[in-house]
Amino acid sequence: MNVTRRRFGVLTPSSNTALEPLTSAMVAMVPGVSAHFSRFTVTEIALSSKALGQFDDSHVLAAARLLADARVDVIGWSGTSAGWLGFEHDVTLCQRITEETGIPATTSMLALNEILNTYSLREFGLVTPYTSDVQKRILDNYHNAGFAVVAENHLGISENFAYAEVTAETLTAQVRRVAEAGAPAIVVACTNLCSANLVPAWEEELGVPVLDTTSTVVWKMLRMTDQTGISVPGWGRLMEGVMAHG
């Protein structure tokens, strides 16, 4: 049987060592799909002008143009910067990527918000590795968008490389704390956490859906390439297509 080949282009922070192996492992389970990556400089997550400047569209567009050379079918920004920059930032970014390359685009955060809306998850708990001021900006943006973050936990880390060094034990402790506070769903936001593979165990233990931002962008890219009904087992309810069955 001939399988239509689909190429996913993934924009990656330069210091990220988690999202590429996790994304590749996910798409390897979908026949005919491959992931291809392009980096731009991101080393610090903070609210300083220097740190915010890392996400200037010009840097992202340069990386997107390299993915266009590979004739990818879709481009996904596997990053959570819109959490503190504002969600409209990603809307504009996707428009600019498509204008520049002719390729449809999405992001981890836009996909996450679509999932939250699709499954009426207006309340959730938030887990990140970020600093308090970055976390507050994310909480404010979700509040302004009409969501209620009923519990949150963050680690106070600003060095992007260090996120991938956070242990499974630390991440599990964070998720449990948020769940114990009564969160009906949990968002793990940061694509340099080695967390997407832990989602099934968390969901089984805690009995609530867990949405990981490395997975959300893959979920959306599958849908943008006419693979809506694809189940990707081993990555939690969202990727298996059983969110509605909670």
Fold and architecture overview:
By secondary structure, the chain is an alpha/beta fold. The chain has helices at residues 19-27, 49-53, 57-69, 82-85, 87-101, 108-118, 132-144, 160-163, 168-180, 199-206, 213-224, 237-240; strands at residues 6-13, 33-40, 74-77, 105-107, 123-127, 148-153, 186-188, 210-212. The strands form two sheets. It has a four-stranded parallel sheet. Strand 1, helix 1 and strand 2 (33-40) form a beta-alpha-beta unit. The chain is globular, with a radius of gyration of 17 Å. It starts with 5 loop residues before the first strand and ends in a 6-residue tail after the last helix.
Strand and helix map with partners:
Elements: E1 6-13, H1 19-27, E2 33-40, H2 49-53, H3 57-69, E3 74-77, H4 82-85, H5 87-101, E4 105-107, H6 108-118, E5 123-127, H7 132-144, E6 148-153, H8 160-163, H9 168-180, E7 186-188, H10 199-206, E8 210-212, H11 213-224, H12 237-240
Quick tags:
246 residues; four-stranded parallel beta sheet; alpha/beta; 8 strands
Outline:
The chain has 246 residues and is an alpha/beta fold.
DSSP strand tally: 8
Determine Rg (CA atoms, Å). 17 Å
Q: Order of strands side by side in the largest beta sheet?
A: 2-1-3-4
What percent of residues are in strands? 15-25%
| SSE series | EHEHHEHHEHEHEHHEHEHH
Considering DSSP H and I runs of 4 or more, what fraction of the residues is helical? 40-55%
Arithmetic mean pLDDT:
96
Biggest β-sheet description: 4 strands, parallel
Q: Would you tell me the structural class of the helices and strands? A: alpha/beta
Low-confidence stretches: none
Task: Based on Cα principal axes, name the global outline.
Answer: globular
Task: Report the span from N to C terminus.
Answer: 34 Å
Number of helices: 12
